[in-house]
Amino acid sequence: MNNKKIMIVLAIVFILPVALAKLALELDWFNRAATNKGELLEPVLDATPLYSKTKPPTIWRLVYVIPEQCDQSCKNAIYSIHQVWLALGRESDRVQALLITTEQSDPTINNDIKQLDNIHQLQTSTQNIQNVFKQSSADGIFVVDTLQNIILRYGLQQQKQKAVMHSRDILADVKKLLKLSRIG
Question: Which of 37, 110, 141, 149 would disulfide-bridge 44, Cβ 3.0–4.6 Å?
Answer without folding.
Answer: 149
